[in-house]
Amino acid sequence: MSSTVRQKRDASEMMSSSPAAVATASSADEPSSSSSSISSRPRGTLATLLSRPSAFANESGSLPIGEFEPTAARTFTENDAMEVEVEVEGAVKLVRDAAVLVIGAGGLGCEILKDLAMSCLVKRVVVIDLDTIDVTNLNRQFLFRQSDVGKSKAEVAASFIQNRCPWLQVEFYHGKIQDKDAQFYKQFNVVISGLDNIEARRWLNGMMHSLVQFDDDGDPRPETIIPLIDGGTEGFSGQARLILPRITSCFECSLDAFAPSAAVPLCTIAETPRIPEHCIAYAFILQWPKEFPDRKLNPDSPDDMKWVYQQALERANKYNIHGVTYMLTLGVVKNIIPAVASTNAIISAMCVNEAIKLLSFASQSLNTYVMYMGSEGIHSHTFVYDKKDTCPVCTSHVHTLHISPSTTLNSLLHMLCDKDGRFKLKTPSITSSSKTLYMRKPLALEKATRKNLDKTLGELLEGRSGEELVVTDPVVFPETSLGLVLTFAE
């Protein structure tokens, strides 16, 4: 290869953010030594990714964002490398013009914000989190300091990143994700979630799917699809997942994969405690309401948690149970799973890597789920999470329920909310084609429809079998609904 061609290829692998360097490298007429050429070539840039032929077999297949074809194989010739430079500049511009929403500023969120800042590509990030900083966060949530305890996580994280990395514009919101409407979420090009509870993730999943619009043929309009990257960690394990609303499987499709939380009988807690957790549960479930009947326990209050710890320690001493500590008390009350900083770092890198690939089309996207299992070594497993044909969120499937006409409306609502059932709803409301059967909000409408709860479905629907009902639930379907056909059968 001639020195001129080699220099052009080097230029195509340099960031477009450094035009002077690109111009110098591409305009040099004198041949350079092999060593200087190699040492001056930046590695790991978008240009490198866009220009390289893939070394991974799975990148030759058809994946969510389309089949990846390296730029070099598509446009590069020895006579003209400038087309590669133009395409690289276009890819970088796509990332820089994008708006990224980061949900959660905890252990995973801090790492995600750091990775986005150090990419030096993303220019606008918005972070939202409801929590305030606790002293126990300081061992792994490295954007916070002792003086920040009690302050908003989102505000402090945004301020830290903004001051340390001024090229990144960071905005923050302190509050619940449910407080934001569809217009808020429409402004982003990609959403990265670091949420730590299932209900919030279900709500977010439902919201992102509700933003998708369809054309006249019933196909999703690509410009209305906002990718959702869901990350989560638990000890030495973690997962990253790419959800393209209405294209890939969604969070609701995999809801059955989550193990139910192990409940401890109240009689065991009250009468025969055996482990430290039973003593702590007794203190905050049974003792607190008796001692403070007019005040709810605040898990973020050091004074409240100190009281719970002292009561739990006294009970543990009474039953000769060892192991009650302040840290364990926090963990039980807040349902905290021990966090490992290295796991957060690995999963956040996966999430941000997927975001950059999606925004720039620099490489093939994840298809669609990767699990990291650190307790078994440096091991990860990638697989396709199939879409559930009857998913109430990402499909338009109308569900059929065979039920007795003597079943009351209240019993039907309990069936829909059964945590082991098909739908696992939280706060459903139901309407028929002719009237509202039960509506939880506003309060006036709830009072007006409350009398229907004890009526039978046969009475409410006037014996009509096959009636299609519309079920709404702000937790699972923020902007959409579930179609449910009731077929009467004795």
User: Share of helix among residues?
Assistant: 25-40%
Number of strands: 13
| Secondary structural class | alpha/beta
| Separate helix tally | 18
What is the strand content? Answer: 5-15%
Query: Sheet bearing the most strands, described?
Result: 8 strands, mixed
Average pLDDT score:
81
Give me the side-by-side strand order of the main sheet: 3-2-1-4-5-6-7-8
Instruction: Note poorly predicted spans.
Output: 1-44, 54-61, 70-81
Gyration radius, to the nearest Å?
27 Å
Overall 3D form: globular
Distance between the termini: 82 Å
Write up this protein.
This protein is of the alpha/beta class and 490 residues long. The chain has helices spanning 3-12, 19-27, 34-40, 46-51, 71-75, 82-96, 107-118, 153-164, 182-186, 198-210, 266-271, 276-291, 302-318, 326-333, 341-360, 409-417, 443-449, 457-460; strands at residues 99-103, 124-129, 169-174, 190-193, 228-234, 237-243, 369-373, 380-383, 399-403, 429-431, 436-438, 467-472, 482-488. Strands 3-2-1-4-5-6-7-8 form an eight-stranded mixed β-sheet, with helices on both faces. Helix 1 (3-12) packs antiparallel against helix 2 (19-27) and helix 12 (276-291) crosses helix 14 (326-333). The protein starts with a helix and ends with a strand.
Please describe the topology of this protein.
Layout: H1 3-12, H2 19-27, H3 34-40, H4 46-51, H5 71-75, H6 82-96, E1 99-103, H7 107-118, E2 124-129, H8 153-164, E3 169-174, H9 182-186, E4 190-193, H10 198-210, E5 228-234, E6 237-243, H11 266-271, H12 276-291, H13 302-318, H14 326-333, H15 341-360, E7 369-373, E8 380-383, E9 399-403, H16 409-417, E10 429-431, E11 436-438, H17 443-449, H18 457-460, E12 467-472, E13 482-488
Parallel strand pairs: 1-2, 1-4, 2-3, 4-5, 9-13
Antiparallel strand pairs: 5-6, 6-7, 7-8, 10-11, 10-12, 12-13
Helix pairs in contact: 1-2, 7-15, 12-13, 12-14
